[in-house]
């Protein structure tokens, strides 16, 4: 069971998230806060596994709250969930120690999957945000990739292009006229062949190599 705290200054957002997450038997919402200060206090009191954190909030924003939590309670993960796709926010949140950054229009299934992956130690960056991270990274993020690109099928290479552009699984499925489940299976195969951990690493490598390498 993943014990999480919801932090958002809008009560309706917290209420909706709680109701949705309640349907996942692997997740338990154990507390709610409306700013970064309350988030820090709740983490101290409840020792959750993960904090689902908004960015722009009164009293203490999510970036400062994330920094305090990650510094004082390193065993608690922070996953940012916000409406703001501003490059500066993404970079600041990750530099503060957040294990992921998603937008609030993320499909529920992808949100719960991200929560589970962050809990396991992976980093999750929402579609379309990886480029912002690379542009602001100093030094640039670099990932070593094993051989395997030549074994990818044309369809798998097209999926890689789509991921590099920031497309979600649903958008890829619609563009390629295949089932979303098929997209997930193909991505799993791609990650296995390239010895990569997750789609975030795949997007970073794709951007590092340049789209011409996949033509």
Describe this structure in words.
The chain is α/β, with parallel strands linked by helices and 215 residues long. It folds into two domains: 2-132, Rossmann fold, CATH 3.40.50.2300; 149-214, Winged helix-like DNA-binding domain superfamily/Winged helix DNA-binding domain (Arc Repressor Mutant, subunit A). The chain has ten helices and six strands. It has helices at 11-21, 36-46, 62-72, 87-96, 108-119, 130-136, 154-164, 169-176, 180-194, 199-209; strands at 2-7, 27-33, 50-53, 77-82, 100-103, 124-125. The chain has a six-stranded parallel beta sheet, with helices on both faces. Helix 2 runs parallel beside helix 3 (62-72), helix 3 (62-72) packs parallel to helix 4 and helix 7 (154-164) crosses helix 10 (199-209). This is DNA-binding response regulator. Residues 3-119 form the Response regulatory domain. GO terms for molecular function: DNA binding.
